[in-house]
Fold this sequence. Notes:
Blueprint lengths: L2 E3 L9 H7 L8 E3 L7 H5 L6 H13 L5 H11 L6 E5 L2 E5 L9 H22 L1 H8 L11 E6 L3 H10 L5 E8 L5 H8 L5 E6 L3 H12 L2 H6 L1 E4 L5 H7 L1 H8 L8 E6 L4 H11 L6 E6 L4 H8 L23 H7 L4 H7 E5 L2 H15 L5 H16 L5 E6 L7 H8 L6 H7 L6 E3 L3 H10 L1
Parallel strand pairs: 4-12, 5-6, 5-8, 6-7, 7-13, 9-10, 9-12, 10-11
Antiparallel strand pairs: 1-2, 3-4
Helix pairs in contact: 1-6, 3-4, 3-12, 4-5, 5-6, 5-7, 5-11, 7-8, 11-13, 17-18, 17-19
Bound molecules: pyridoxal-5'-phosphate.
Amino acid sequence: MxxxxxxxxxEPVGLSHAVLKGLANDGGLYMPERIPVLDxxxxxxxxxxxxxxxxxQVTSAFLSDDIPAPVLAExxxxxxxxxxxxxxxxxGIYSLELFHGPTMAFKDVGARFMSRLMAYLxxxxxxxxxxxxxxxxxxxxxxxxxxxxxxxxxxxxxxxxAVAAGFFxxxxxxxxxxxxxxxxxxxxxxxxxxxxxxxxxIEVDGTFDDCQRxxxxxLGDKKLNERFLLTSANSINIARLIPQSIYxxxxxxxxxxxxxxxVFCVPSGNFGNLTAGxxxxxxxLPVAQFIAATNINDVVPEYAASGLYRPRQSMxxxxxxMDVGDPxxxxxxxxxxxxDHVNFCKAIYTCTFTDSQTLEVIDQVYRxxxxxxxxxxxxxxxxxKLYQSAHDHPTNMVFLETAxxxxxxxxxxxxxxxxxxxxxLKSVKDKKxxxxxxxNELQALKELITSE
Length: 452
Ligand SMILES: *Cc1c(COP(=O)(O)O)cnc(C)c1O
């Protein structure tokens, strides 16, 4: 399988290059040259199939040319060492709980899979020479193929912890997580800084934007690239997208009434989660409708309404992992829809909600059903209800619950009181933090990356 750039100004590349470099030389995002369609036999046995079984079949449709079957099976098992249950919240409305991983957000799925895939491709390249040279040969000068792999990621909170947890103890990889001083929650900071070993937490005296700028600068630094294989772990990487398709199939496998039309409502920021759903549909999963629900950062709903895509600065909300003003996966969605606005609108129903609507519905659903949603999942629930009110045929309505509510206890305390911390979050509270503080300067970061 080859991967092409959404900007189409650079050559298609193999998996190793796409994953280890992340972004194409022309600044585009990698897309698989084709989306594989799964066999009828897969779909006829899907109902009741287990998570690992589904995961192996879905990922191997993309990766079997490059990854031996037993290796892929092991990657899948290590990635999904937690369940993704489908919970009926009220008749016909289901929450797909994506938050049972180590950092309690859906990003665990993509980050854990990517870390293992990167480690494998890096090692395979070292041993065989081929994969690695392919990576090295494009845009890099060194051809020794023996350089250590260093992953750099900037975070405003959730991504850093999922990436750290995903890469912890993965051999041959050093990870540098840049977070802005005083701007992540105390719990998020613990989730980033309590790992040690190959995870290096770096507190930057600046904002998230400064962290992102520094990360971009080191990734583009010629001298450092000669010594190390540098890569980014943020959500543009195709290795995070592919495994996210798995749970759309797994949701279908868990339905009580599989004959009803299936509708997914996805709380969206960078639209990686939704794009993975579109992959699942292109692979043959019968999805009647996708709904993309956003907070007031509504660039994509605005595109659906007007045909105009106008990226802008994001605004802060309580569903902060969706505070995105220029969603990176928009270009991938455009590829899937042949850049056609009508195609886009047919496949995706979009909607937007405010913080006060979000808090109100968390309260209402909690009082009526006892089910406590986090702000991101609540935005999706609102989207599901809005769609239902306009379409009265019965459906299996599945909204994606992307984080555990305890991660956002400050925002929703007024509704549910103090939320008990689940074990994953409790255990980091007592661990000791390790991090290095640096000024907002490239040189300081370069020195750190060189010395570790
Ligand atoms: C990242 C994130 C989202 C948004 O996902 P995208 O793929 O960026 O659209 C939603 N909810 C939570 C909890 C997240 O961490």
